[in-house]
Amino acid sequence: MNDKERFHAVMNFEPCDRVPYWEQGFWGGTVDRWYAEGMPRRHDVQGDPEYGDTVRGPATPIAPGDRICHDVRDNALLDKPSLRVPVELYLCPVFEEEVYEETDDQATLRDALGIVKQTPKARNSIPHFLSWPIEDRDDFERLAAERLNPDTLDRFPADWNAQVEMLNAYDGVVAIGGHPCGFFGAPRYLMGEVALLIGFLDKPELVRAIIDHLADLWATLYDRILSQVKVDCVHIWEDMSFKNGPLISPALFREFMLPAYRKVTDVVRSHDVDTILVDTDGDCRQLIPLFLEGGVTGIYPFEVQAGMDIAQIRESYPDLQILGGIDKKELATTRERIDAELDKRIPPMLAKGGYIPMADHQIPPDVPWENYLYYRKRIAEMAIAG
Questions:
Q1: Residues with Cβ within 8 Å of residue 151, at least 6 apart in sequence
Q2: Distance CA 52, CA 365 (A)
Q3: Averaged pLDDT in 10-residue chunks for the chain of 386 residues
């Protein structure tokens, strides 16, 4: 079986030779550490990541220019990357980046998404956010007309026909969506997290207008893309939960987001795409029924530290596609503890199907290279035996 066939077999709970060998991603600092510890350097890292930057793994669709490391993939025997259809699905054009103030350690700038922030130059901690593109209805109307118009020609690459031919011939996974395409994820970037959360209550019409416009944007673009490209799955990026539960109530999700989910997933399904994955960190258990009602078929990465036990989730949702759920913190310990974690998580999940084993988020820099190789070797042994 090739990677595409294997992915569809697992997502459809069908027999296959093995599960996909996937990972969500790695910190830039992790890859640097692994080179220092002896990982063969044949390709280096595309995208020149800093310590805290994301280097994408096979589970996260890549577009031209994204940060990837073929050396990790080759040496850890991961599958070929998922390819993201290279159509701009968010701001087009993006904002012109501008630096307002700079010191030796940090810079105050406006980034391509229109967010003004103070950010450490080493990118080893989160930025301090100062302002966001949308504060009121006028901001939204202007941004929607100028940068969220589905008919902007520059959304599609100049070599679109060649891209279509290449993607349709690819024997790995082809995907659309992903960061920042989500109905909490993108509004958070437009308004800021605090303003968005308050806005559900004191600016509901503005929040609803933003979400509805994004649904129309993506429904239109996905319909155009899927009429030409054979896509294997759609990714929706939300990151809308934390350690103790979702950032909004199920009632707010139902009122504001569920209609948007249905609009987009209906379009996707009309083109025979039957795998729709949500990426949300934290404890999202209260939202799983709503994701399913909105047309979602799978979720990742199931963070263990937030109480996301994939065995319990599987019992409650036998048809849910599950990716992840292996405690990344255990990978920094000993082989014995890695064995215990994998023995606990993987065999019962493989027995029931619909599961891709991988860590519960990006691999952090405290994981030694030898530990990571051992963990991937054990997954391969279990995958073949399963």
A1: none
A2: 9
A3: 97 96 97 97 88 93 92 96 98 97 94 95 82 98 98 97 98 97 98 98 98 99 99 97 96 99 99 98 98 99 98 98 99 98 97 97 98 98 77
- Tokens at 156, concatenated: 């599609």
Q: At 298, list the tokens.
A: 């799978």
Residue in 255, 276, 252, 256 with CA at minimum distance from that of residue 265: 276
CA-CA-CA-CA torsion sign (207, 208, 213, 215): positive
Q: How far apart are CA 81 and CA 11, in angstroms?
A: 17
Parallel, antiparallel or unpaired: strands 98-102 and 83-84: unpaired
Q: How many CB atoms lie within 10 A of CB 165?
A: 13
Domain coverage including residue 172: 3-91+135-385
**Cα 146 to Cα 155: distance, rounded to the nearest angstrom:** 13
8 A C-beta contact, residue 148 and residue 213: yes
The answer to whether the CB of 106 falls within 8 A of the CB of 121 is yes
Integer Cα distance of 174 and 159 in angstroms = 17
Does 174 share its domain with 321?
yes
Please say whether the beta carbons of 372 and 57 come within 8 A: no
Q: Both tokens of residue 117?
A: 């922030």
Domain count, the chain: 2
For position 36, which CATH number holds? 3.20.20.210
β-sheet bridge partners, residue 110: 98, 116
Long-range contacts of 332-335 (CB under 8 A, 24+ apart): 332/364, 332/366, 332/367, 332/368, 332/371, 333/371, 335/371, 335/374
If you ran DSSP here, which 8-state letter would residue 79 be given? Answer: P
Q: Is 80 helix (H, G, I), strand (E, B) or coil?
A: coil
CA dist 161 and 142 (Å) reads 32
Specify the pTM: 0.95
